[in-house]
Amino acid sequence: MTGPMVVDSKGGEAVVDNAKMTLLAMFLVGLSANSGLLFGYDTGVVSGAMLLIKKEMELTDFWHELIVSGTIGAAWAFSLCGGYLTDKWGRRRTILTAAVIFTVGSLIMGFATNKEMLLAGRIVVGVGVGLASMSTPMYMAECCAPKYRGVLVTIYTLGATSGQFVAGIVSGLFSDVTDGWRWMLGLAAVPSIALLVGFMFLPESPRWLVSRGRVDEAEDVLQRLRGRDVSVHQELKGIRESCEEDQRRKAELHNVNVPLRILRTPHARRALFLGAALAGYQQLAGINTAMYYSATIIKMAGVGSNSAAIWLSAGTAGVNCVCTVVGMFVVDRMGRRVLTLCSLFGAGVSLAILGGGFLMMDHTAPKITETSALAGACAAYMTCGECTSTRHTCGFCMLGNGTGSCWPFDKDSELALGGACMTPAGADLAAGAEWAVGYCPSDYSWVAVAGLVIYLFCFAPGMGPAPWVINSEVHPLWARDVSNSISTSTNWLFNLIVSLSFLSLVDEIEAYGAFFLFSAVTFTGVVLFWFIMPETKGLTLEEIQGLFGADMEKTGATGDGSKPPHNNIQVVKTIEL
């Protein structure tokens, strides 16, 4: 039995989409997921590792944010040049380069002797992450058959969320080990070496080969990817026509640089705006705040033990991973548009719940009822929140009779240096007493943790993969490298801004204010994408260009002879960007 019929976007004969998953295609998918795992592992492991590193290296909030953001800043910078490299070197060689760089950076972090060396390792890793995050989804989209493309590109995101979960497990296992953070960070070299070795055996993208005039090689690659018993002539013809059109337009506009040409071409400009907006809102919705600082957020919510906070953050990463699997099965059934809108709306609601949990904790936080001149600067604080702020080296001592006091603590052991909670190392506190460093005891901790879990449940299936899937589909071939580079760098830029400012934002407007702000911004994204996002499921890459182009406005067709749905293609066409 043959697959569904797909009408060629240029009016040619129908193509039977009967491509199957060959062993080579499955190997490609597995390695591309491993590329996502590198990104996910780095995102997840820093959450737990930083709890240990901050204590050992006595980091300020600024250095905490700087080390977390070092990778992100480097990834942003090198995603900007990623478009040039994927066009010049090819997708495959760019991914190989990224794997080598990531391996070197992981080893530097594992052997770091001070905060400066650790920051250097984070920056080197960021270079590899930036190149891989830009080139891998593009490579997968150009190698996948149209009917598998949505699911397979989503596998990159599954790899990322799986990496976060693996990082959580590894962090938990090493949380009580001496120098455990070195193992957490250094083990990232294992999947990067696997990626390096594996991609040595994979072919280049057929679209890149055609663009370089290597048509025979491209046909051979397509045949190996689709199966020897499947005809690839019509698919190759479509790729050649796209590349020839690209070359023709480049010859006509040889003195115009590509970014400027994108801005002057309406359909390319619309596609770039959508792709960059999705990439930006993925970060503005707070996902990597939740992942980079998950253990810190959980500890702020009232979980006192570092080890317990790290294991709970591993649990939230597991929720993220499972829900991404759900996204794989619905992305090509529900469609990109509906899935994205529902996901973003749910994320906004759950961020409000998360903020509400911290607000309840703040309003019910125990008060300081006893002060002593022996407490020094800690005696000036009147609430548990002020006392345990990360800006101060003070902890909160709460006794069973309801009294509370603020005292300084030893930076190495985090034991109280005065008051009723001062005990010898290894000794237990009095019955009913609790010594809190970096958090306030609360009966509402579960609300914040539940809000975090609900947030990941809503975000992961839709807004997790959507920006990568859409950006791999919507850009015309001549603009694909540069547009993907701009969208990816937009993602990293907002990632950098959010991660570099989160702890400072919490200090200024409290945790509940920060999450209420993320919620409000997320709802603006729901409104924006309602008006500008079309549906792309089931269409070839060439047909998708018509969703943003003048030809589709004239015909009103979607590529298969049907009329475009309301609030989809027609809405996109009426917005002048």
From TrEMBL:
Residues 28-537 form the Major facilitator superfamily (MFS) profile domain. It is a multi-pass membrane protein. Its main location: membrane. InterPro entries: MFS_dom (IPR020846), MFS_sugar_transport-like (IPR005828), MFS_trans_sf (IPR036259), Myo-inositol_Transporter (IPR050814), Sugar/inositol_transpt (IPR003663), Sugar_transporter_CS (IPR005829). Pfam families: Sugar_tr. Keywords: Membrane, Transmembrane, Transmembrane helix, Transport. One of its GO terms (molecular function) is myo-inositol:proton symporter activity. Belongs to the major facilitator superfamily. Sugar transporter (TC 2.A.1.1) family. This is Proton myo-inositol cotransporter.
